[in-house]
Amino acid sequence: MKLKYDVVIVGSGIAGPIVARNVAKEGFKVLMIDKKAEIGTPKRCGEGISIGAFKKYDIPYDKRFINREIYGAAIYSPSGYKLEVKHNHVAGVILERKIFDKMLAYYAAKAGADIMAKTEAIGLIREDGKIKGIKARHEGNSLEIYADVIVAADGIESRVARWAGINSFLPPHELDSAYEYEMIIENIPDPDLIHLYFGNEIAPRGYVWVFPKDEDRANVGVGIAGDNPRTAKYYLDKWIKENNIKGVKILEVNVGGVPVGGFLRELVKDNVVVVGDAARQVNPIHGGGMAEAMEAGTIASRYITKALEDENLELLKGYTEEWWSKDGARLMRVLKIRKISEKLSDDELDAAVQALSGADAESLISGDYKKVFKALIKNPKVLLKPKLLKLLTEAI
Ligand SMILES: Cc1cc2nc3c(=O)[nH]c(=O)nc-3n(C[C@H](O)[C@H](O)[C@H](O)COP(=O)(O)OP(=O)(O)OC[C@H]3O[C@@H](n4cnc5c(N)ncnc54)[C@H](O)[C@@H]3O)c2cc1C
Question: Which residue of 33, 35, 176 sits with most ligand 1 atoms within 8 Å of its CB, as the best mutation to test the pocket?
Answer without folding.
Answer: 35
